[in-house]
Amino acid sequence: MLVKNARLRKQEGFWQIHIQNGMFQQIAPTVVCEDTDVLDVDGKLVLPPFVEPHIHLDCVYTAGEPRWNQSGTLFEGIALWEERKQQLTKEDVKSRAWKAIRTQITHGVQFIRSHVDVTDPSLTAMRAMLEVKEEVANLVDLQLVAFPQDGILSFPNGLSLLEEAVKMGADCVGGIPHYEFTRDYGVESLKKVFEIAQKYDKMIDVHCDEIDDGQSRFLEVLAAEAYRLGMGARTTASHAVAMHSYNNAYAHKLFRLLRLSKINIVSCPTENTHLQGRFDTFPKRRGITRVKDLMNNGVNVCIAQDSIMDPWYPIGTGNPMREIEMCIHMCHLMGYEEMLQSLDLVTENGAKALNLADRYGVEEGKPANFIVVDADNAYELIRDMAPVLYSVRQGKMLMKRPHAEPELFL
Ligand SMILES: [Zn+2]
Q: How many helices (H) and strands (E) does the chain have?
């Protein structure tokens, strides 16, 4: 395949991209080749595919079952899911997960990390998602987190279910320390997460401090343990919304540890804007972690959708541009350079959190995975929330969006 007249991020002019055997062969202003499979993108921006570093594919499309979440709190969501998950079957989970992955593909996502609830004695969702992972292998990279929704030490057999799910084939060990019964349980649960990750050579992705409680300080425990064991690059803290409520002196101290530990942070802008601040009167906290401060302090931070129509978040489309839109508003990231940089939050930074390393990026010698967006540059992409026109996976067309201009009657 030869991609003609592409614009590349942070590069001037037009570029030609020659793809052979599923790899980027040559990327240059002029390319001489006789390939007849030509895609002229007419000056549109070519990017590496979007990364979705945090979603719950086992829960998607269950909003309203058995009832809608009326309070809008995380806790009513967990209670509703507890009821819904009694009805899970492998087919139910697989068909909903597939539906979500299909829609994610239409939005240019090719790399996904999904949490899967393992506080279920039958581990139905994990069994289903392991099958989905195999089925979609040629379409998207799908990483699975063994996620103990109801706790590791606060749920009957939580620890053995977590380990069992990891043995079955999960890529990451999860945790939820702020939801454990006590602070001590929370700290102890994180120790167990590291033990299992080391034993089975897995990555770590913990729901950490997803609560508007300035006293919820499990992130420092996670980061300190990752630092001590040298596992920071393979460790992610998701949400970290309590950081919104930390005093500035403590946050300042924490940033040093986060930077030293090299752990990754995932923020979920739409989800946490919706769920947090629910116990406040006025003024209401935004309840989103300090994305801008983390970026400015050299911590790798990325953003994620988290939910599509589930007990925690009733809407959602799987489109990462919605997350950028919310994030740049809520986190005051609309300085011109900040807006351009915000594209990293759904591309490079997510790839780093997922440890994709040399498999990610529009560069010679890497797998030819890329998207073409309906914009000339990053600024227009963000301003216009421009759609993805093409998604190409290892040199093969994965998605093509029919392009229809609106008709005006002026
Ligand atoms: Zn989550």
A: 13, 16
